[in-house]
Amino acid sequence: PNDPSMAAGMCYPKPGDLIEVDRIFYKHWALYLGNGYVINVTPVDEGAPTLSVSTLSMFTGQAKVKKQLLKEVVGNDSWKVNNKYDRSRTPLPVEVIIQRAKLYIDMEVTYDVLGNNCEHFVTMLRYGEGVSDQVSNTGSA
């Protein structure tokens, strides 16, 4: 069968690109490092299925930053490169983004679905500050 990770993406990511993955009830975000690898935030509890909605959406506490193959993170879900904040923010130089990202691999970070989610993490790497409109779309908190 054809490789869903490339077919669904339509365009090939470049290092430093933000990858938006369509999960059933939410968007998962990763940052493309190059050579097929991404960095993303996953729950610390290894027993928890990394991709389940209940784990991530209700999950607050510690999370682990992992370097994984894009196709492993995406599975059968569709994904696209989405550097949507480039219109309003200037990305850091690619070397800086990748250097910053590598510092976080295997680190534990605080995770909070509203204040510090997977999108905040990757935008912080790309732009130097974390942004997420998943939060602002939910109305006032």
Automatic annotation (TrEMBL):
PROSITE patterns: LRAT. One of its GO terms (biological process) is N-acylphosphatidylethanolamine metabolic process. Residues 18-134 form the LRAT domain. The keyword Hydrolase applies. Transmembrane segments: none annotated. Coiled coil: none annotated. Keywords: Hydrolase, Lipid metabolism, Transferase. GO terms for cellular component: cytoplasm. GO terms for molecular function: N-acyltransferase activity; phospholipase A1 activity; phospholipase A2 activity. Pfam families: LRAT. PANTHER family: HRAS-LIKE SUPPRESSOR - RELATED, PHOSPHOLIPASE A AND ACYLTRANSFERASE 1. Belongs to the H-rev107 family. This is HRSL1 enzyme. It comes from Xiphorhynchus elegans.
